[in-house]
Amino acid sequence: QAKVKYKLTGGTTTGEDFEGQEYGMEFEQNVWSGGKYRALYNQARVNLAVARKNHEKTKAEFIFEVIQAYYNYVFAKEKMKNKLVLKGNIIELLDISEKQYNAKALTLAEILEARSQLEEVNFQVVQIENDLELAKLALQQLLSQPSKVEIDVGEMPEPLIFERDEAKLTEVAYKNRRDYQVNKLLVLFQKYGLEIAQKKEGLNVQLTGSYGLKDEYYVTEQVDMKSEYYIGLKFSRALGPHTAELNLMDQDKVPQIGQTTSSQFTSEELTVKLKKQKNQTSLTEANISYHKALSELENSKRTLVHDIRSSIYSVAEAEAKIQNDKSILALSAEE
Fold first, then answer.
1. Half-sphere exposure (CA, 13 Å, Cβ side) for 110?
2. Rounded to two decimals, what is the model's pTM?
3. Which range has the worst mean pLDDT, 72-81, 103-112, 171-180?
């Protein structure tokens, strides 16, 4: 850190007016921090990786919502298509039944049952129409399309048969599941945070200094700018809850008003700041955050394994339902 300064002064001393001018540069530079700034840099890189993973997670969740809405809409359309075919068949059968009833070949109870089946299908068609409209609106909202725009979704795709090898699926999930990847990165982030807190407890060396031109003079005198400087080294290290500091300084100051010679001196100062609890608190908090991140990573692992097993069972159940529904449809066609 560096800064440029310019300073004007004025006043009266021993009954005479005086003025002063000063300009120059001051700087501070950390010479040694035990690797704290490298850890800060690494932590910032991990934070960037976390942000990217969160972006990927948001994108993946959006894609999942679109796919889910798409299948809901396609399913509703297919359901409506099948129900309208069924309605047409029932109307044909009812027409035949009405003729048989008029010919006294069917009883009143039988024709009423046939009419009831048509009413039931009409009610189901209205329900499916509502479901279809809701599914369409949900898909259009995700795609940011006006409600009047028709969506061509094609035919109902064939169901996919998923591999149900738990070990392989778990391995793939470890590599690709964003929640787990983010938790892994957060463990690394907190690890660097703990390292930073520990480095603050170690030796730190800071170089400070300044150089410039300065003069203080009576208003009746000529301005004669002279150079002055100071340079210092500051060593600091934590001693438990305390902090020890050693300051070394070499300085050359131009004469002040009323003086004729410059002031040159060196100094060494050792101080101990008692019970400076801030570093200790930061270290404790960093340690807690690191172990909390480890715990959340373990929870993420358990959740991942549970979700894999749950998904395997759900897929198996869905495949069994598909086979059962095919059998029901085949039987209904025969009837």
1. 12
2. 0.62
3. 103-112
